[in-house]
Specification:
Rossmann fold; alpha/beta; six-stranded mixed sheet; two-stranded antiparallel ribbon; 2 domains; single chain
Length: about 375
């Protein structure tokens, strides 16, 4: 009996120690995120905050008329004060809809929401400055963390009649293929929103669903959805090979275009780009560029764009990567989004392409 009591006591103390360590880890991660980012911890579970709020059709959207000041570190560890604001409808930049200047509408995800830089340091603010001396423009830029192609298309459909853009620029990312497919997003660790969002079926039907990731299964998964420490440590252990949790990105990396789920996601994305072209007047020119260049995603984007009359602006992701390899500070601290220098590089490439194609008198409506 004494032996049994000793074992029970040891198990209880071990459990208590584990619980204490998790609690300490939770506190540490939350404090670290707060201190390192210099801004309130952004919670994906929060129903509303300065960068995201609930939307019944989109799942979530960027709130309008926000004004925030916070500090982040760049890749060299230097603090930068960020002045973040949004205007009408949550656009980070919203020009004059009645202007006779060339109007450019830019839609994207977190790279375009650009939480790491101030308003005047975003690629679209710099693009406006780069073009203004020879091609005056009005720019309307909207981005939201975690958006897929369908949500971006819905933003275009929501606002195109008011803006009536001459040009639309779509910023895309490799994880769009994951986010466009409930099948793939439910198998993803790193690109899973855990949030209600719209998905299009192969028959064109749109449904609202919440994707479940591999970590959502079982008790650990349910607990981890409410713990930033577990959300941080489990994928880290997975990447180190300590925890064997499968994720679909690994399969796609290994199988490429032979992965059946990935090719179904490509077909869905193909359908969405067709919907984009149909939603936009024939006279409106559509451009697209990639924020990263991971394969096989990048290659599939390059195949899809010309099929729908979308002009691909090449070299954006490659130029940022090249600058990073040369020692330039193009990313924030511990992040693969763009710091101010990264946005400058993106703006220059976009401006060069637009100047070459579009230097002409402004289009009037």
């Amino acid at each position: 009996m004494k032996l049994l009591n000793g074992i029970v006591l040891q198990a209880f103390l071990a459990g208590l120690t584990l619980l204490f360590c998790v609690a300490l880890g939770e506190l540490g991660v939350r404090l670290l995120q707060y201190v390192s980012d210099g801004r309130p911890v952004i919670s994906q579970m929060a129903p509303t905050n300065f960068w995201r709020m609930f939307d019944p059709d989109l799942g979530w959207r960027t709130p309008a008329n926000q004004r925030q000041i916070y500090t982040i570190k760049d890749g060299a560890g230097v603090d930068h004060e960020v002045h973040y604001s949004t205007g009408r409808y949550g656009f980070r930049l919203y020009g004059d809809t009645k202007s006779r200047k060339t109007k450019i509408m830019i839609v994207g995800d977190s790279y375009t929401q650009a939480l790491a830089v101030s308003d005047d340091q975003t690629y679209y603010a710099k693009l406006k400055n780069n073009l203004s001396d020879r091609m005056p423009v009005e720019i309307f830029a909207y981005g939201t963390v975690g958006y897929g192609t369908l949500q971006e298309l819905m933003i275009v459909e929501r606002h195109i009649k008011e803006i009536m853009p001459d040009i639309i620029i779509f910023q895309v990312c490799s994880n769009d293929f994951i986010n466009n497919s409930i099948e793939l997003e439910s198998q993803s660790l790193g690109n899973n929103s855990h949030s209600l969002r719209p998905y299009i079926g192969i028959d064109g039907t749109i449904t609202m669903q919440i994707p479940q990731s591999p970590l959502d299964k079982g008790v650990l998964g349910r607990v981890s959805r409410h713990s930033r420490f577990l959300q941080w440590v489990i994928p880290l252990l997975h990447n180190q090979g300590v925890v064997k949790t499968s994720t679909v990105e690994d399969e796609i990396r290994d199988q490429g275009t032979t992965h059946p789920g990935f090719m179904r996601a490509v077909a869905l994305t193909d359908r969405l780009f067709g919907g984009l072209r149909s939603a936009v007047p024939a006279a409106t020119k559509i451009y697209a560029f990639q924020a990263d260049n991971l394969q096989p995603y990048s290659g599939e984007f390059e195949k899809l764009f010309p099929r729908h009359g979308i002009t691909y602006i090449k070299g954006v992701a490659e130029a940022v990567t090249d600058a990073f390899q040369k020692g330039e500070v193009v990313y924030p601290w511990n992040d693969d989004h763009w710091a101010s220098t990264g946005h400058t590089i993106v703006a220059e490439i976009l401006a060069n392409r637009l100047r070459r194609d579009l230097e002409k008198p402004s289009v009037s409506h």
